[in-house]
Amino acid sequence: MDSSNLIELDRQLLLWFNGSDSLFLDGLVKTLTTAVTWAPLYVSLLYLVLRNNDNVKKVLLIVACALLCVFLAGSLNDMLVKPSVGRWRPTHDPVIGYVVDVVNDYRGGDHGFFSSHAANTFSLAIFFSLLVRSRVLTVALIFWSLVNCWTRLYLGVHFPGDILCGLLWGGLVGTAMWYLHLRVRRILSPSPGFISSQYTSTGYQLTDVDVVITVLVMTFIYAIIRACFYLYV
């Protein structure tokens, strides 16, 4: 299969995911794809870090690595990769742009390779999954990232190929930042493994992990409620 066939397949897959006749889904996706919607989740992750690290250096190291995830996975992409590659978003694509279903005339910027939403969310999901080592948190954060990816396809602002490359890059960045954290953490303070029914293997209290899960669930409920109001706007 040559590159032209791959590009055409990417377009057809996008049109399969893109849009619907449901105003409820339109409202749900617009809420879920908005960065401010997830502010409570980021605050809850910070709470988890603060509650389970006993000095400022450890906290600052984790926060710095998380910020590096966002910078390397998303910000650097927006500044360098997207303008350099110059691949049109589906909404601006000269071949299918006219048939892409848009919501509230939202079309995004001109270029979309690769998806910063996919890269950012997946890098954070992988970083915190490796950091905390809680199976339920890992599943929840990966699900959160994939939901964000789906919203970009639904809105027609990224091709599936943009999403896939964003996930791959985000996974690499998240893993690299965890390794960086691990090496520096060992210098600052070697940590013993935890064997307890109340803590994860890296020393994070399960009740604090539950706070993050609860916030994530409540955010989804908020998005659903807001989407219901969207029907009457």
Task: Give short descriptive properties of this protein.
single chain; 233 residues; mainly alpha; 8 helices
Shape call: globular
| Most strands sheet | none
The number of strands is 0
Structural class: mainly alpha
Runs with pLDDT <50, length 5+? none
Quaternary organization: single chain
* Helix proportion: 55-70%
Strand content: under 5%
CA gyration radius, whole angstroms: 19 Å
Short description:
With 233 residues, this protein is mainly α.
Question: How would you portray this structure in words?
Answer:
The protein is mainly α. It contains eight helices and no strands. Helix 4 packs antiparallel against helix 5, helix 4 runs antiparallel to helix 7 and helix 5 packs parallel to helix 7. It is globular. The mean pLDDT is 92.
Topology:
Layout lengths: L2 H15 L5 H10 L6 H13 L4 H30 L30 H17 L2 H20 L5 H29 L17 H25 L3
Helix pairs in contact: 2-8, 3-8, 4-5, 4-7, 5-6, 5-7, 6-8
